[in-house]
């Protein structure tokens, strides 16, 4: 079957194991049952439309339905390059849309309440990496001390810890943008130093039973942390803070929203988050744009009002010609 052969081609191209697993699941569960009996060169756009409709009817999320369409489109594109089909019929079928969903961000008072609850917890520095740097869970769990330069206050995201076929596996950063160098805020650097001291104490207490992995965040015996256990601990802490809606991944969203509220350009936010495109960043954080835009436009108010005394008007105009204080603000607002 061509789809099975295509997955092997993708494997040879270096596609991540987790992605390959998703491909196989979508193929076996949704694609083969719908169009698996149709010869490759006999597929029509109508068949692809039926595939998408069947995926929707099965209860798949809009994102997963879009993945089904993307998978068959990419597989047929490869078949077209190899002259196995005359054209890619999936291109004639529009990809299903994904309804926009606003991301709820922590309000300042909620963030302060959460920080108070996190204080002193064994995983405080771990959760701080999500809130203060916007790191994904897998990126945090994949951090090694060799990736962290506390003296230089920089951190390198090079790998991620993920569960692949039932086993915890370290995989390299997915894209060039995911592989990034980030500045470490002073407070986070302090928390990481404290965490390193705590870890050294655990290593000493465990002695020969300690498993050295070089990871920043480990179990009490040095092994990689189970991602689900990290989520469970966070769920306990968020409940204590009175934030039942908050997910661990929402700390990443809170980080981005705070940057936008401080007027940080979207491209900088994109680079810090490791997003593949600026469109992804803008679409994800549309909900924070109105307030940011209102603040930016508000900065222009002084251009249209004049409360200066008449006697000083000429002198003020000459001084403004030497150093217009609006130059910096205008550059900042329009820089993308």
Topology overview:
Elements: H1 2-12, H2 17-35, H3 45-57, H4 62-81, H5 108-118, H6 124-133, H7 137-141, E1 148-149, E2 154-157, E3 159-164, E4 167-172, E5 180-183, H8 186-206, H9 227-240, H10 250-261, H11 266-273, H12 278-284, H13 289-298, H14 313-322, H15 326-334
How much of the polypeptide forms β-strand, as a percent range?
5-15%
CATH superfamily of the largest domain: Intergrase catalytic core
Task: Fill in the CATH topology of the largest domain.
Answer: hpI Integrase, Chain A
Structural class: mainly alpha
Mean pLDDT reading: 85
Q: Please state the overall shape, judged from the principal axes of the Cα atoms.
A: globular
Counting structural domains, the number is 2
Measured between the Cα atoms of the first and last residue, the distance is 46 Å
Task: Count the beta strands.
Answer: 5
Order of helices and strands: HHHHHHHEEEEEHHHHHHHH
What is the topology, as strand order, of the major beta sheet? 1-2-5
Describe the biggest sheet? 3 strands, antiparallel
Radius of gyration of CA atoms, rounded to a whole number: 26 Å
CATH domain class name of the largest domain: Mainly Alpha
Distinct helical segment count = 15
Helix content: 40-55%
CATH-level-2 architecture of the largest domain: Orthogonal Bundle
Runs in which pLDDT lies below 50 for 5 or more consecutive residues are: 308-336
Describe the structure.
The chain has about 325 residues and is mainly α. The protein has 2 domains: about 1-90, Orthogonal Bundle (DNA polymerase, domain 1); about 110-260, Orthogonal Bundle (hpI Integrase, Chain A). It is about 55% helix and about 5% strand. It contains 15 helices and 5 strands. A 3-stranded antiparallel beta sheet has the order 1-2-5, with no helix packed on it. A two-stranded antiparallel sheet has the order 3-4. Strand 3 (about 160-165) and strand 4 form a beta hairpin. Helix 2 packs across helix 3 (about 45-55), helix 2 packs across helix 4 (about 60-80) and helix 11 (about 265-275) crosses helix 12 (about 280-285). It is globular. About 25% of the residues are buried. Residues about 310-335 have low confidence and may be disordered.
């Amino acid at each position: 079957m061509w789809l099975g052969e295509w997955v092997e081609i993708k494997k040879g191209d270096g596609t991540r194991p987790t992605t390959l697993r998703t491909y196989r699941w979508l193929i076996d569960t949704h694609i083969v049952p719908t169009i698996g009996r149709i010869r490759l060169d006999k597929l029509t756009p109508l068949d692809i439309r039926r595939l998408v409709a069947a995926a929707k009817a099965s209860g798949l999320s809009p994102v997963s339905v879009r993945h089904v369409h993307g998978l068959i489109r990419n597989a047929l594109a490869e078949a077209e390059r190899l002259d196995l089909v005359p054209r890619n019929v999936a291109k004639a079928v529009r990809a299903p849309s994904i309804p926009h969903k606003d991301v709820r961000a922590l309000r300042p008072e909620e963030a302060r309440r959460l920080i108070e609850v996190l204080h002193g917890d064994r995983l405080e520095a771990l959760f701080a990496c999500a809130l203060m740097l916007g790191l994904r869970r897998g990126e945090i769990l994949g951090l090694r001390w060799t990736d962290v330069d506390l003296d230089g206050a920089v951190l390198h995201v090079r790998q991620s810890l993920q569960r692949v076929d039932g086993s915890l596996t370290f995989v390299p950063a997915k894209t060039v943008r995911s592989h990034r160098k980030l500045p470490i805020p002073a407070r986070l650097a302090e928390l990481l130093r404290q965490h390193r001291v705590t870890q050294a104490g655990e290593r000493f207490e465990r002695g020969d039973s300690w498993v050295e992995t070089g990871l920043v965040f480990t179990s009490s015996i040095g092994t990689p942390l189970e991602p689900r256990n990290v989520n469970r601990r966070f769920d306990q802490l968020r409940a204590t803070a009175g934030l039942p809606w908050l997910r661990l991944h929402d700390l990443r969203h809170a980080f981005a929203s705070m940057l936008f509220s401080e007027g940080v350009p979207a491209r900088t936010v994109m680079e810090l988050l490791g997003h593949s495109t600026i469109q992804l960043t803008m679409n994800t954080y549309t909900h924070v744009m109105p307030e940011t835009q209102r603040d930016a436009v508000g900065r222009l108010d002084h251009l249209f009002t004049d409360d200066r005394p008449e006697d000083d008007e000429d002198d003020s105009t000459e001084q403004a010609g030497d150093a217009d204080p609006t130059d910096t603000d205008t550059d900042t607002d329009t820089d993308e």
